[in-house]
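#lab-general

N.A. 3:47 PM
ok so I finally got the sequence cleaned up, no stray characters, all 165 residues accounted for. can someone with queue access submit it? mine expired

B.Y. 3:52 PM
send it over

N.A. 3:53 PM
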Amino acid sequence: MSVQKNRLERGWSQEHLAQMSGLSLRTIQRIESGRKAGLDSLNALAAAFGTDLATLRQESIMTDPSPQKATNIQDRSDEEKEARDYVRNIRGLKMNIICAIFFLPLLYLLDVYISPGHLWVQYAAAAWLVAILFQVLAIYMTFRLFGIQWEQRAIKKRLDSRRQS
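B.Y. 4:20 PM
back already:
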C-alpha cells in the first residue's frame, strides 16, 4: 500500500502526516507523487503509521510509478533539454552578431589606419559571416547531425555493446 493510501485510510491530510512524521509537507508531496523516499523519510513515515520499516519499504517498492509515467518524465526532460539547448544556441548567435556589428567596423578603421593599401579586414569579415551562416543553419535548419535523437542512439549503442562484452 502506498503512503497516500495509508494516509487516506486514516483520514489524515498531508499536513497532518507531515506533523506526525516530522517531515516537511513538500517531502510528503514528493513521496506521494512517486519520487523515491530516503531511508530517514521511510523511518519517519513508518513510525507515524505505526508499522515497521520493512513493510513500508516493500509497499513503496510495489507502488512505484508505472513505466509509462517514468517514460513521460524522461520525455519531458528531453524536451526541456532540447528547448534549453535551442535557447542557448539562439543566445550565442545573437552575441556573435552583436560582436560582429561592434568589432568589424573597429577592425576596418584599424585596417585603414595601419595598411590603407591592402584591406585585410574583408577576409576577417568573410570568415565571421560564414561562421554566423553556419550557426544559423545549425539552429534553424533540420540539419541537426548530433541532436538528442543521435545522443540517445549513441548511448543505447554504447550500453548494448557493454552488456554484450
